[in-house]
Amino acid sequence: MGAGMLANIEPVSSSELFDLPDAYRTIGVARNVDYSPLRAIMDWRRQGKRICLVTLVNVEGSGPRSVGSQLAVSDAGDIAGYLTGGCLERELALVAYQTMQTGRRRIERYGRGSRYIDLRLPCGSGIDVLFDPLISDGVIGTAVDHLSKRQPFELVTDFGGETAVLAWQHPAEFARQDAIGDGRFTKLYLPPVQVNLFGEGFTPIQLAKLLDGLGILCRVHSDERLTLLAAEAIGIPVLPMSSYGIHSEDPWTASATLFHSHDREALLLMQLLRGQSFYVGAIGGRQAAARRAAQMLAKGLDKKDLDRLVAPAGSISSARTATELALGLTTQILDTARRLRRVL
């Protein structure tokens, strides 16, 4: 895939390709901007809308989004997802609309080597984009079921086939890159990052509010009265500390403890450090962290498990407010997820 495949195609202006009603030119964003395109497609199909799944299948040069990034578009003008920093989304939606009319898959080139002379990417790169209006309800339903059950899977699209197919993904291959080849594109889907918080005071509530606004699933566990009152005031649900364990962890879970009294954390942190969470953090100063570490080692925690603990947690040094702690923890969790390839 590349510019050479399009060398003999006469350059055109993208505006020559479309004749759409004005109403479609205003495109709305479904829920939060990172809402799953597959879930959006299932929602729209249930409403009787036609859809097109748009996938970034190749990048030459640099770009803001990774290969495998997706955009979903409905014939009513709904949109979920994005493939660029915003410079192409409107045009991609318009091409998706046209593809719904033809009922055929197509691949278009944008930026470097494109036939669209008026569409250039600011980064100077070239991208190949797959427009698929044929993905079946069965495939979408199964895919969303896997996402709900937090099971990784692959979606394999044969450019000349009738529809896309699903395949299981073995845990050892979680880090495999999305790939194009042999007339097919294989995309790996991973469960979204989720966060478990344990603690007291305003910080876990502020952090949960921030994560909720970002569309990241967060569960708060606390029994402290002030924490419960603060959570109730802003509509954040809180689970009792004794409920921990009913929500299983997995390799896409981050966990953090946010207590004022650090002595009560040892047994909980030992359980978390022996579990599957890709990130385990604990707030508090360095002296408190040292005492806590010594206490856990004395209780039998293995040194290699202790080395997983991020303490003091948070990327903002000397954070003093709940907001600073919440921002620092969010940044650190997402940075760790990217570094360990828990997100694609």
Describe the protein in words.
By secondary structure, this protein is α/β, with parallel strands linked by helices. The protein has two domains: 3-135, no CATH class; 194-336, Rossmann fold. It contains nine helices and 16 strands. The protein has helices at residues 37-46, 89-102, 137-148, 203-213, 225-234, 266-273, 286-298, 303-306, 322-339, and strands spanning 28-29, 51-60, 70-74, 78-81, 106-111, 126-132, 153-158, 165-168, 179-181, 184-189, 194-199, 217-221, 238-239, 253-258, 279-282, 309-310. The strands form three sheets. It has a six-stranded mixed sheet. The chain has a six-stranded parallel sheet with strand order 13-12-11-14-15-16, sandwiched between helices. Helix 4 (203-213) crosses helix 9 and helix 6 crosses helix 7 (286-298). The radius of gyration is 23 Å and the shape is elongated. The two termini are 21 Å apart. The model is unreliable at 1-27 (pLDDT under 50).
Task: Summarize this structure as a short list of keywords or feature phrases.
344 residues, alpha/beta, 2 domains, six-stranded mixed β-sheet, six-stranded parallel β-sheet, 16 strands
Topology:
Blueprint: E1 28-29, H1 37-46, E2 51-60, E3 70-74, E4 78-81, H2 89-102, E5 106-111, E6 126-132, H3 137-148, E7 153-158, E8 165-168, E9 179-181, E10 184-189, E11 194-199, H4 203-213, E12 217-221, H5 225-234, E13 238-239, E14 253-258, H6 266-273, E15 279-282, H7 286-298, H8 303-306, E16 309-310, H9 322-339
Helix pairs in contact: 1-3, 4-9, 6-7
